[in-house]
Amino acid sequence: xxxxxxxxxxxxxxxxxxxxxxxxxxxxxxxSALQVGDMLPPENELCKHLGVSRPTVRxxxxxxVSEGWLTRQKGKGTFVSHPKIDVRFxxxxxxxxxxMRQKGxxxxxxxxxxxxxxxxxxxxxxxxxxxxxxxxxxxxxxxxDGEPVVSVDTFxxxxxxxxxxxxxxxxxxxxxRLETLYGARVCRAHREIEAANANRSEAELLGIESGxxxxxxxxxxxxxxxxxxEYSVARYRGDRNKFSIDLYR
Length: 249
Description:
Elements: H1 17-30, H2 43-50, H3 54-66, E1 70-73, E2 77-80, E3 85-87, H4 96-102, E4 107-117, H5 121-126, E5 135-144, E6 147-157, H6 174-182, E7 188-197, H7 200-206, E8 213-222, E9 228-237, E10 241-243
Parallel strand pairs: 3-10
Antiparallel strand pairs: 1-2, 4-5, 5-6, 6-9, 7-8, 8-9
Helix pairs in contact: 1-3, 2-3
C-alpha cells in the first residue's frame, strides 16, 4: 500500500473524509510516490486501513478519475494516469503536431478515411457552399506518445480543393497542403466547445469506455479574406485533455 501506510483520516475535522483521501492521493502523485501506471490498493483495503465506508473511498476515487488523475480498467483496478495534455488552442492557431511537441510528446496520425462525400447541410452552410455541393471528408485519429488523444473529422470543398484526395495526411499537414497547393492559408478559426459523452464508436476509437466524458469542438477555419476553408469536428478525451486560456483586463 505504497504511500498509504502512515496515512489516516481525521474524523474530528470538518473537512470531509473523502476529500482528505482525495488530497492525499493527489499529494502522492505530485510527489512521485505514486507514478504513472501504478495501481492503487483495492477499495476494500483502503476502507479497512482508513476505517471509512466504501462510499467515502468511492467518491474520492471517482472524482480523481473524472479529473484525470486516475483511470479505471475493468477487471484490473484503478491506476495513476498520464497527466492531462494542456491544449491552448483557444489562444493560438497551430497544428496538432506542434501542440504535442511543445508538451514533450511524440505526435502521430492514423487516417481513418479520405473520400469525396455528398454535401451535408450544416457543414455546407458553414463553408458557404450550396447544400448539394460535394465535400472532401478527412477522418483522422491523432496520438500523443502512441495514445489516442483526439479524433477529428474535417470537411473541405471538393470543387475548390480536389487534389487533397491524392495526399497522405498521416505524413503531411492539411493546412500546409491547402497553402502550398491552393494558396489558402488558414489565418483564424471560430470554435464552439461543449461537453459530451462518448458513444460506442467514439469510445472504441479513443480507447475509453462508452459514456465517458469527451470535449466536442466544432471549428471553421478562415483565410485572411474571410473565406471559410475547413469545417472540423474534434472529439477530445476528457481524461487526457484540458483547455487553458489567459484573460487580461
